[in-house]
User: Fold these one by one.
Assistant:
Number 1:
Amino acid sequence: MCNIKITGQILTISTSIAELARGTHHRNGPLPTSVPTCIFLRSYNVDLCYTPMILADVFKSSTYARDSDFTTNERDDPVIIQFAANNAKDLVEAAELAAPYVNGIDINCGCPQKWALQEHIGAFLMTEPETVRDMVHSVKAHVDIPCSVKIRIHPDLKETYEFVKRAEAAGADFITVHGRTRKQKSSEPVNLDAIRFVKEVASVPVVANGDVFSLTEAEDVFDKTGVNGVMAARGILQNPALFAGDKHTPWECIERYIKLALGYGTNTFIFHHHLMYMFEDVMSNAERKTFNCLSSVPAILDHLEKYWDLDVARVMA
Ligand SMILES: Cc1cc2nc3c(=O)[nH]c(=O)nc-3n(C[C@H](O)[C@H](O)[C@H](O)COP(=O)(O)O)c2cc1C
């Protein structure tokens, strides 16, 4: 299983996509809240946040899973819930439960992990365009909010063309494309030509994803591909102020995250991992090793007070 679930791991700077999501937004009531990351990221020019991938079959059948996998509140807007499913029925049932609380449903066709491929979800679906078409069609028939698909490219772009055409004919509102094939490692460069190809052939908006670690790189992707939005994962985890133009995580950003996360009672694992990402650039290997082994919120705060001059009392005041 995906054991790193970090809230707001996927983000875009596309205003048009955000408006699309916001346009058909309905909210009927609150779910338990624990989403400081997305709220905080929006203050750094992030237009749209996604949840981590959530298994539709588990989500639809377990209240416990729903409560632990997905939390939101009125300030968490716009937000897209991303599901992994291998059939339309599970997806629709999960989408119907989530729809009152989100601005869009996204179908994950990109997760390349072995367990996901075995479950016939994630990147496995890139070879199942008919299944994805049925999923999009069914979501659109049952749920009145946008439905998007996050894909990877195929080694043969003709297949990507066929895939995209089916998804949009079924009603997909936009497509996010990670410019690598299922088998490519993240150390290999993203294929911007392939993303541009998707943008050129698609009649719905396209969001580009992969290797954006600065605002300049995001602008470069816009220029080279003509896409409607840019999504970042690792870059924004390392530097939440990326889209605000900061080259490195500003200290005030770390303080604001701590204040918001502690205020919301964010779970220790998520709190720790976000801070591990934010400190990745600035801590030495030895420091990182020590920091990454801390196992409680007090230990994390003590460490930051001792070695990084964090003033918890001031931050929380
Ligand atoms: C910690 C982490 C968690 C991720 N979780 C998801 C996920 O739940 N769903 C998804 O579609 N992609 C997920 N991804 C993949 C990213 O969305 C993205 O496609 C990939 O990291 C390449 O973009 P980047 O270069 O901006 O990181 C995750 C990536 C990271 C680093």
Note: The beta strands are 10-12, 48-55, 79-84, 104-108, 147-152, 174-178, 206-209, 229-232.
Number 2:
Amino acid sequence: MEQTRSRQRGDQAPSRPPRRIIVGISGASGALYGVRALQMLDAAGIETHLVVTRSAHLTLAQELEMQPRDLKQWAGVVHNINDIGASIASGSFRTCGMIIAPCSIRSLSEIVSGVTSSLLTRAADVVLKERRRLVLMVRETPLHLGHLRTMTAAAEMGAVIMPPVPALYARPDSIESMVSHSVGRALDLFDVETDAVVRWEGLARRAPGPGAGDADDGPPSTS
Ligand SMILES: Cc1cc2nc3c(=O)[nH]c(=O)nc-3n(C[C@H](O)[C@H](O)[C@H](O)COP(=O)(O)O)c2cc1C
């Protein structure tokens, strides 16, 4: 009713934010998570804004034999890590939010402290202050109490802490499918539909209990 009345008064309905997501790749192990996020968002027709830290140059090279320029083919806009005047450094530039995949402890800590020394952490800070979605695929192990407290603080500030933990129930048959599933679940948080997620529909068959030897019993299936 209220909407109808305001339209009759000639008011504009609030515009929907553009389907635009910031992708940050920091220097934790798992650069492939960031690359897959870019590829999947590109395939879904979402405009991406990519920012890569200097340490991530090392992990891209070490883990994937890639350079940041190789990512341009999937990114809408590539921002320089030092360009603190970039569009994504301002809250007036509307986005659906940001995913940092993978997220190092250093970047996590900068975001929580608010001492944002790069465009990646500044963009994350902006996403939080504008109450937009921030997904942090934090990767470190084992974790000391300081790491855990910093993650707690980030969650209290509104971020989603989503370590890249493999979903073995989906029975990945390769590193690629394991990573795609995790990234697909992260993109679920932005309501981006991908075909990478094996969605759980319940145990198709009863898993064998200890000592159960029935040849018909098999492991649970998700297919
Ligand atoms: C090959 C490699 C793997 C690394 N893995 C991790 C990791 O899993 N988690 C982490 O927090 N830091 C990791 N680091 C260390 C970070 O790169 C380092 O703390 C850096 O300062 C992070 O900066 P950034 O957040 O600006 O990318 C790794 C470094 C290298 C070279």
Note: The pocket of flavin mononucleotide is lined by residues 26-29, 53, 55-56, 58-59, 62, 104-107, 139-140 (CB under 6 Å).
